[in-house]
Write a structure and sequence with these properties.
Largest sheet: 3 strands, antiparallel
Number of strands: 3
CATH superfamily of one domain: Winged helix-like DNA-binding domain superfamily/Winged helix DNA-binding domain
Strand content: 5-15%
CATH topology of one domain: Arc Repressor Mutant, subunit A
Strand order of the largest sheet: 1-3-2
Radius of gyration: 21 Å
CATH class of one domain: Mainly Alpha
Helix content: 55-70%
Length: 188
């Protein structure tokens, strides 16, 4: 039985066994383990009352945070910064527009088909409210050490995301391959 399999109820325990943190990590499973951990973190963060109180989802908050207080941000810019498809961004923006948190307009540039997104005054209030509640959570759990751990984890996850995007792009037909898709994960 692996250390990650749950103990059968007939053996008297209902909780899954914890992974032995001293056991070596199998590089073949490292990406899957990292993705599962990132998903668990996202689910846990999505359950924070700050999002419910502000009437936004984690995805909506992420897009709002990407836009910030800027005006006339392109859909492409939001999509790239958020790391999600334009179609997904359009769906989230539609929901945010219904909540009066963003406005969408047509570009005044050369391509009139391009859409631009701007934050509304309510956006700043939502971002401040969620941020304040998150900082409050940190202060309850020992802000200094916890903040350093979170900052390190965020840097690691960003490097992993960058590496995965490069690897995927290198394997897609019709796209320019990166010179070194498996480049050093420690670069920023």
């Amino acid at each position: 039985m692996s250390s990650q399999e749950p103990v059968a109820p007939s053996e008297g325990a209902a909780k899954p066994r914890r992974r032995d943190r001293t056991a070596p990590v199998d590089p073949k499973n490292a990406l899957e383990d990292a993705l599962l951990s990132a998903h668990r973190i996202a689910v846990a963060i999505g359950e924070i009352n700050a999002f419910r109180d502000a009437n936004v989802s984690l995805a909506e908050w992420g897009i709002l945070r990407t836009i910030g207080a800027r005006k006339d941000v392109s859909l492409k810019e939001v999509s790239v910064a958020a790391g999600v498809s334009r179609q997904r961004v359009r769906k989230v923006l539609s929901d945010l527009q219904a909540k009066d948190l963003v406005t969408m307009g047509k570009s005044e540039g050369t391509d009139k088909r391009m859409r631009t997104i701007s934050a509304t005054p309510a956006t700043a209030r939502v971002l401040a409210s969620v941020s304040q509640q998150m900082h409050g959570l940190l202060s309850q759990t020992g802000q200094g050490q916890q903040s350093r751990r979170l900052a390190g984890a965020a840097r690691s996850l960003n490097r992993l995301a960058k590496h995965v995007r490069r690897s995927l792009a290198a394997g897609r037909p019709g796209r320019k391959k990166k010179a070194d898709a498996a480049s050093d994960l420690d670069e920023d």
